[in-house]
Amino acid sequence: MRDLRDGKKVDQPHLSWSWSWDGFNDTAWNTARDSGAISYMDPDAISGYATVYIQQEYVNKTATAIMINEESRAGAALEVARDPSKLTAAEIETLLIRSAEIDLSFGTLQTTMKQLDDMYTNALKGS
After folding, report:
1. What is the Cα–Cα distance from 82 to 93, expressed in whole angstroms?
2. What is the C-alpha to C-alpha distance for residues 103 and 106, in angstroms, rounded to an integer?
3. Residue 1 lies in a domain
């Protein structure tokens, strides 16, 4: 994109944007809750796991929101421009800005996921 913006000829320009999210699963927590197994757990463990699963749900929702919002923002512009060499300077600049916004969103998600990973580690230490 930067080369196109700077007027350089790009051999076989192909632009695409996609990613996928598998998400985290809360089946174990739901099963423990629904089967009554939680009643046999230590109250501190219950609190710890509940906090972990709340954070996990937040990460899932955040990742899904990023995927939906950012894919439509960047993907739509790329879909319209089937031939990147025909993009105007303003369109290229818009795509570069949107790419930077996506990077920022992923950076925030990465930080949140690191916190979740730390929570997993702490929860396993307590079990």
Report:
1. 17
2. 5
3. no
Model pTM? 0.66
- Rounded CA-CA distance 44/57 in Å is 20
- Residue 10 has a pLDDT of 66
Q: How confident is the model at residue 111 (pLDDT cuts 50, 70, 90)?
A: very high
Q: Are 92 and 1 in contact (CB under 8 A)?
A: yes
In a domain, 95, yes or no: yes
Highest mean predicted confidence (pLDDT) among 16-20, 89-93, 99-103, 118-122: 118-122
pLDDT exceeding 90 applies to what percent of the chain? 13
Does some domain include residue 24? no
Dihedral of the CA atoms 55, 57, 63, 68 (nearest 10)?
Answer: -150
Number of domains in the chain: 1
For residue 119, give its domain range.
43-127
The tokens for 4 are 């196109």
